[in-house]
Amino acid sequence: MTMPSRSAFARPRLLIIGCGDVGMRLLPLLAGRFRVFALTSQPERCSELRAAGAVPVVADLDQPATLARLRNLAPWVLHLAPPQPDGDTDRRTRHLVAALGAVRRIVYVSTSGVYGDCGGALVKEYRPVAPKNGRARRRVDAERILRAWALVTGAMLSILRVPGIYAADRLPLRRLEQGTPALRFEDDVYTNHIHADDLARIVLQALTRGRSGRVYHAVDDTRMKMADYFDAVADAFGMPRSPRLPRAELAQLVSPVLLSYMSESRQLDNTRLRRELRVRLQYPDVATALARLRR
């Protein structure tokens, strides 16, 4: 087994909580800057994480007794883990802050769903949250818990509110294949987007440049309604467009979860992201990304 170099041990330690798709895209960007630890509840992922340059830490946010190893493990933390799928509070984040100990810097990846339905309005980061479903209420709870914890401990906290994440392998192709209907234009909602690779870079910028207690919208420049997004993907891949239906008719055909996504309309402003974090997006909008895929 190859031992880490002495320079690796000299690097600042960083802990990633929730090293899924975005975390794996982030790991190459952290190489040479940090000695990275990655929390996983799946022992079978350890070899994958090691190969990507992280030191795996096997523990489970749903099992507080397993989190003892996290105390004072790393002064830099990226919290990318979603809440558990039930309830109105984020028990996982509560378990995490109880276990962490001393932390200098933490970035939390939240969701734009915390705003609820905004009627298609342009939304800035200071808009009051108004979550309409359990998913969003759990995220609001996590943000509040982290703010209170950071205030007590002195940790610097930045929050990224993230919309729909897409990438070449994260497109609604199956939905298009199945012919799932979309809303007609007059009933449709504005959605927001960010490419997974850009999100990974935004997380790194927030870690190094984010202001303490600050919220940032991790969103691109796209101004598009949901059905138009599906049409753009369908056209890019030569697939039939989704049929469009009135809301009352569509509500009888789709799942409650899908209908909830089709019931919230907002346009996220990303001025703060560009001015304060100085982010330059590789994929500034969905059209640019799809054009590259076509090429």
UniProtKB/TrEMBL annotation:
Gene Ontology cellular-component terms listed: cytoplasm
Assigned keywords, A-Z: Membrane, Transmembrane, Transmembrane helix
Transmembrane segments: 145-166
SUPFAM superfamilies noted in UniProt: NAD(P)-binding Rossmann-fold domains
A Pfam family recorded for this sequence: NAD_binding_10
Gene3D superfamilies assigned to the protein according to its UniProt record, in alphabetical order: NAD(P)-binding Rossmann-like Domain
InterPro entries hit by this protein: NAD(P)-bd_dom, NAD(P)-bd_dom_sf, NAD(P)-dependent_oxidoreduct
Coiled coil regions, renumbered to chain: none
A GO MF term: aldehyde dehydrogenase (NAD+) activity
NAD(P)-binding domain sequence ranges: 20-208
PANTHER family assigned: NAD(P)-BINDING DOMAIN-CONTAINING PROTEIN-RELATED, PROTEIN YEEZ
Protein name, as recorded: Nucleoside-diphosphate-sugar epimerase
